[in-house]
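Researcher: Can you fold this with S-adenosylmethionine in place?
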Amino acid sequence: MLDTYGREVRTLRLAVTETCDLRCRYCMPEKGLPTRSEPLSQDELVEIARAATQCGIQKIRLTGGEPLFRPDLLEICQRIAQIDGIHTLCLTTNGTRLAALARPLREAGVKRVNVSIDSLNVSRYAEITRGGSLPNVVKGLEEALQAGFERVKVNCVLMGGINDGEINDFIELTKFKPLEVRFIELMPMGECSQWPEERFLPAEKVLYTCPMLDRIDDEGVTERYRLKDAVGTVGLIRPMSHMFCGSCDRIRVTADGMLKPCLHSAMEMSLRGLSGKELEKRIIEGINAKPATHHLNETGTQTKRSMCQIGG
Ligand code: SAM
Ligand code: SF4
């Protein structure tokens, strides 16, 4: 359905947990975050997904926290993938459990998977994630490439002075693998909200670093590029330097059942305890409450939650 600014809202980001096995420095404090309340049950998640399709949602991305740590994730995927009206079920993961779960997820109906990898250097990756194992995640990525997903993407959050020296290494990955490597501008939220200015790089840096990239097209909020003769593609997501709210087609639901019309707004609407037409009515209210734009550059984010609590 169209929101009040004429944008067609087709995507729901549905967080299935707030917890995570990694502690990425920009996202989670070292000791983790206290869980706010019980996560949505499997039945609640499926009911929200069903109601969302009645409101025009066609694509659902499961996220978190780390979705692969939810014990009933495969059943959740199977049930959501079977809902009439769901065109694409996708998942964003840190990949630590992907080696074992890539094939079962594909069989459960997940069509696309995004794997977050912020460094291709073993010790830098461990430093950013506070202890994560890069070889393990790369194994997960390789499994995902073999498992028959429609698309596999790598999400890399650009951090000035930390991983910007690796831009060409990430782009190299697209030469021979059918991957989309997406560089995402770091947003000052939660843990990184007080980081020094030099950490926040415009994605333009990717284009200066690799001028051989040819522009292909835009896909939603992603600008897509390709190296000549490369199998894969490169994407830029620029929430800070380019206002892309005009093409925002998404709403979010947190793991504790709050609908967020905009990532950076404090507005939240509870879906808990609702079902059937009442639930659909609340989701429509949420779509209509989407603001024209965020105000990240003027006032900073207004949300009280970090990305792992919202569902990035
Ligand atoms: N744990 C999963 C993962 O890391 O892919 C899913 C949840 S995580 C919050 C989703 C995405 O949000 C990741 O790609 C992560 O890098 C990104 N993210 C988290 N905090 C961010 C921030 N402040 N700015 C930009 N991206 C952020
Ligand atoms: Fe966990 Fe993902 Fe946040 Fe890293 S970005 S701490 S993997 S939720």
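Model: Folded with S-adenosylmethionine in place. The longest strand covers residues 151-158.
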